[in-house]
Amino acid sequence: MHRPQLEEFIKRMDQDSVAIIASAPEATRSNDTQYRFRQNSDLYYLTGFEEPESIAVIAPKQEKKFTLFVRSRDPEKEIWDGRRAGIEGAVRDFGAEEAFPVSEFSEKLGDLINNARNLYYRVGDGNPRVDNIIIKEIARMRSLGRKGIAPPQAIVDPGTILHEMRLIKSDDEIALMQRAADIAAEAHVEAMKTARPGMKEYEIEALIEYIFRRSGAAAPAYSSIVGSGVNATILHYINNDAELKDGDLLLIDAGAEYRGYASDITRTFPVNASFTRAQRDIYDLVLSAQLDCIRMARPGVSMDELKAHSIEMLTEGMVRLGLLQGDTAKLIEEEKYKQFYMHGLGHFLGIDVHDVGRYYNEGESRRLEPGMVITVEPGVYITADTKEIPEKYLGIGVRIEDDVLITEDGNRVLTNKVPKEPEEIEQLMAR
Ligand code: GLY
Ligand code: MN
Ligand code: MN
User: Fold this and answer.
1) How far is CA 97 from CA 74, 87, 92, 257, in A?
2) 226, 251, 264: which to mutate for ligand 1, most atoms within 8 A of CB?
3) Where are the domains positioned within the chain?
4) Where would a tag sit more exposed on the chain, N or C end, judged by fewer CB atoms within 10 A?
């Protein structure tokens, strides 16, 4: 065993308990074709094992603390679907102290969890087949009490330990996240240099994802959003099939997944390389809120405090620009800003783009700590049919998003290689 994450997890577990972490199921795209497999994030974090139909069993008190159930080698199947590590590879390359064919999981399960105090298993985490095997086995064991067999007393979410570990990134993880951020940053810069009126959103999407893949990223970390004009006001716009029009803004929210770690960047820029006055009004407001929130992001500050600050700044700006009328404090209390700023300020980032980790502890917003990575992504979205606002703002959508590592004395922006100052964007595009 040589994975620090696994060793730390074993240390933090209740020592008389057993943990089971299962792979993600394979996903069908249609009929008999599959999506490319993407491992369950917890299993990937703990073991680095990337094959489907695999299960890790972790038992601190037992002689073999780390067991892997994997697909057996199968020359016929490997011709179609690619190489498998097999039993030997699981031991040799992934540090399992013991490995078995996954087909033997159900029959071995009883012995593995017999007399364990708790079973750490994340029920309902997307693998109903394994859920079922475990539930059935526990029921079977219950009926064997007279023979000295006892199922675990409780099923505990391993996330209570694992997700708190994942929330605080190690130096190795930070290096991977920096690489994911650099790849996405390069893609956004190229998009700025390339976009011009008459192109289609999907051409920019293709360029971005070409750069991701060319750089060794496995895939986009989420469906890329490339929305021009009013499409920028649709938060989850992913069709990306409209034409870029002279005078429109283009909002791109795209990030790469590199060796399991996500980046998540949004930039908004004018298709014709120069912002209009009205676009600048909205853009400058979002940018000033974003920069301010990033400056605030340091150990001890809570996620809710950051969010509240963004709401204050954006609501004040909305009043100043005539998007809202009235007293700022009252507008905030009545959540009127939500008409134009309806999502959160940001989220944890890591192996999952919306990463794990508790946002609240006993109802209190989580305070930032060194090693956390968050996004800071305020936005203002004004649909084309909004009533009673200055007409020049209709159909404008702006979001600016960066990935921010919290450090001992403040933070480091992982994604600052993409310009966001409007003059810098215009200069880059004009070249
Ligand atoms: N692209 C997903 C997000 O920004 O949260
Ligand atoms: Mn995000
Ligand atoms: Mn995003």
Assistant:
1) 22, 11, 9, 30
2) 264
3) 2-165, 168-430
4) C
- Which of 148, 168, 99, 186 shows the shortest CA–CA distance to 348? 168
Dist CA 181 CA 184 (whole Å): 5
Per residue in 285-305, pLDDT (tens digit) is 999 999 999 999 999 999 999
Q: What is the mean pLDDT of residues 402-423?
A: 98
Give yes or no: 236 in active site: yes
State the DSSP string of 277-314: HHHHHHHHHHHHHHHHHHHH-STT-BHHHHHHHHHHHH
Q: Which fold has domain 168-430?
A: Creatine Amidinohydrolase (3.90.230)
Q: How far is CA 164 from CA 9, 21, 359, 372, in A?
A: 10, 16, 11, 10
CA distances from 131 to 41, 68, 106, 280, 395 (A): 17, 17, 11, 52, 47
Torsion of CA 298, 303, 304, 308, to 10 degrees: 60
Domain 2-165 shares a fold with domain 168-430: no
Number of other CB atoms surrounding residue 104 within 10 Å: 11
Return the closest-CA partner of residue 223 out of 264, 182, 187, 192: 264
How far is residue 35's CA from residue 54's CA, in Å, rounded to a whole number?
17
Structure tokens at 326: 């009235």
| Per-residue confidence band for 431, with pLDDT thresholds at 50, 70 and 90 | confident
pLDDT tens string 346-357: 999 999 999 999
DSSP states along 171-183: HHHHHHHHHHHHH
Q: How many angstroms is it from 294 CA to the middle of ligand 1?
A: 17
In CATH, the architecture of 2-165 is: 3-Layer(aba) Sandwich (3.40)
pLDDT in tens, 234-257: 999 999 999 999 999 999 999 999
Q: For residue 385, indicate whether it is catalytic.
A: no
Q: Which ligand 1 atom is nearest residue 354's CA?
A: 5
The residue whose CA has the least distance to atom 4 of ligand 1 is 264
Q: What are phi and psi of 196, to 5 degrees?
A: -155, 160
Q: What is the DSSP letter of 401?
A: B
What is the share, in percent, of the chain residues with pLDDT greater than 70?
100
Average pLDDT, the chain: 97
Q: pLDDT tens digits, residue range 260-281?
A: 999 999 999 999 999 999 999 9
The Å distance, Cα 61 to ligand 1 centre, comes to: 41
Which pLDDT score is estimated for 1?
Answer: 54
Q: What is the largest CA-CA distance in the chain?
A: 80
Ligand 1 close to Cβ of residue 355 (< 6 A) = no
